[in-house]
Write a structure and sequence with these properties.
Blueprint (H helix, E strand, L loop, with lengths): L7 H6 L11 H18 L11 E6 L6 H13 L5 E7 L6 H5 L7 H6 L5 H4 L1 E2 L5 E4 L8 H6 L1 H13 L3 E7 L7 H6 L4 E7 L5 H10 L6 E11 L5 E10 L4
Parallel strand pairs: 1-5, 1-6, 2-4, 2-5, 6-7
Antiparallel strand pairs: 3-4, 7-8
Helix pairs in contact: 2-3
The structure holds adenosine-5'-diphosphate and magnesium ion.
């Protein structure tokens, strides 16, 4: 079986998380971000939520760090024993997962949703990280919203979650204020990770976006690109990511 080799050194050099257990600040931040998400997905008690293993990463507007967050989360989760991760590039207008991971992909989600004869197995790419698979976005598609809102999308996502019940399915999504793609997808997932770019996204944008996502009851917030405060009280040069549960 073909496994696509991921260049973990390159990811590490780009300041991202790898599943190797690097002791970096970003790895530590994502360890904290993933924990409550995994509990809602798999706890096996009352903390577990319906469809909690289907998680969508989104934000209000482009460029806030959705892909950065989705890839880091996928890597961090793939480091866990017994957790299998399927990262789906569902930002059909501005797909970036393949580029970020340097994967050459021809077919993907858009093709799968459009072509009734295709099967999930036709677009799923296994990687050199044993418990991480990817579904790329596929051919650029002008009608992403229609595809993601379709009955076919509901069936395909249902099939993915049925086929891989013990798997985290992480969707890197379109920004919700730019199109209806994100809103369409939020109806199918159990958890939303909502990325807010520190000192950039306005409060009204956040409020507007959370309204669009109201179909999902479990929304957590990642404050991305936050400059850290040093012990001296000065702002440090690093970006940090902080997670807050139940933000909505
Ligand atoms: N916390 C961060 N630290 C450093 N760079 C970041 C961070 N978050 C995002 N970036 C960079 O900002 C740019 C936009 O992020 P991206 O994840 O592509 O945004 P989106 O998917 O929301 O459009 C990318 O170049 C990404 O590498
Ligand atoms: Mg993106």
């Amino acid at each position: 079986m073909v496994r696509h080799v991921l260049d973990l050194d390159r990811l590490h050099a780009a300041g991202m998380v790898t599943p190797r257990g690097d002791r970096t600040r970003i790895a530590e931040e994502y360890r904290r971000i993933k924990r409550p998400l995994l509990i809602k997905a798999f706890a096996g008690d009352e903390s577990q939520v319906d469809k909690g293993n289907l998680i969508m990463v989104t934000s209000a507007i482009p460029g806030e760090g959705k892909t950065f967050t989705a890839v880091n989360l996928a890597m961090s989760m793939a480091k866990e024993r017994d957790v299998y991760v399927l990262l789906v590039d569902a930002d059909l207008s501005r797909p970036k997962v393949s580029e970020t991971l340097n994967l050459k992909a021809e077919k993907g989600l858009a093709d799968l949703l459009e072509d009734e004869t295709m099967d999930v197995g036709d677009v799923l790419m296994r990687t050199s990280v044993e418990n991480l698979s990817i579904i790329p976005a596929g051919r650029p598609h002008p009608m992403g919203t229609e595809l993601l809102a379709s009955d076919r999308a509901q069936r395909v996502i249902g099939e993915i979650s049925h086929r891989y019940p013990n798997r985290i399915i992480l969707f890197d999504s379109a920004p919700v204020l730019a199109s209806n793609e994100g809103g369409a997808l939020s109806r199918f997932v159990g958890q939303v990770v909502f990325v807010v770019e520190a000192e950039k996204t306005s409060e009204s944008e956040v409020k507007g976006a959370l309204e669009v996502l109201s179909a999902c009851k479990h929304i957590g917030l990642v404050l991305n690109k936050a400059r850290t405060r040093l012990s001296t009280g000065r702002l440090g040069g690093y970006y940090g990511s902080y997670y807050q549960e139940g933000a909505a």
